[in-house]
Amino acid sequence: MRFIMEQKSQNRTGIVILAAGNSSRLGRPKQLLKFKESTLLKNTVLEALKVPNSFVIVVTGSNSNAIEKELELPEINFSFNPEWESGMSSSIVKGLGELLHINADCEQCIFAVCDQPFVTSLVFENLINEYYKTEKGIAASAYSETLGAPVLFHKKYFRELLELEGKEGAKKLIKKYADDVVEVPFEKGNIDIDTEEDYKELFR
Fold it and tell me: How would you label 96-110 residue by residue, b for 16+ Cβ within 10 Å and e otherwise?
């Protein structure tokens, strides 16, 4: 479904891709793992760029120079998070801050991670469509009996997102505001890459 319901062209959806971690369990940057004739991160970015009326921000941290060099896409914005070691919350804060700098009137934002190999533009579009259809403030991907990334937030949650600290992620708000959440199925959303075994399993 290519049509983004009722979305005005000037109200673009920000898509923030969190790619700042050092992949400690993997032992090498997961962002740069070869996948689909490019890399894990680039695949996510290219799918995000297909979404109508959107703009893409990639939050980097560890290995930022190598990651930015590998992408080299003029359509995306980079935001370097010098505090990436403190946890995912710092990347959420950094990415959302950059989004509001680029488009202060942005009304919704999707946060995505870089290690879900089966994410597609349709996954992002389904979140946007369900958000408009249900008028819920949060549209979260549903897989393996949990809710997680990619996840869309209406601007009314931006302040609390900017106040996240340490290891806290967006799940804190998903749980806190469960009555304002629409669950959007994401087949294979549970598959992410944390270890060499995870990566090898992709090709079996």
Answer: bbbbbeebeebbbbb
pTM to 2 decimal places: 0.92
C-alpha span between 112 and 151 (Å, rounded)? 7
Please report where in the chains the tokens 């609390």 appear, as a residue.
160
- pLDDT tens by residue, 114-167: 999 999 999 999 999 999 999 999 999 999 999 999 999 999 999 999 999 888
Domain ranges of the chain: 13-202
CATH topology of domain 13-202: Spore Coat Polysaccharide Biosynthesis Protein SpsA; Chain A (3.90.550)
Q: pLDDT below 50 — which residues of the chain?
A: 1-3, 8-9
State the pLDDT at residue 10.
53
Among left, alpha and beta (phi > 0; psi -120 to 50; other), residue 162 is: alpha
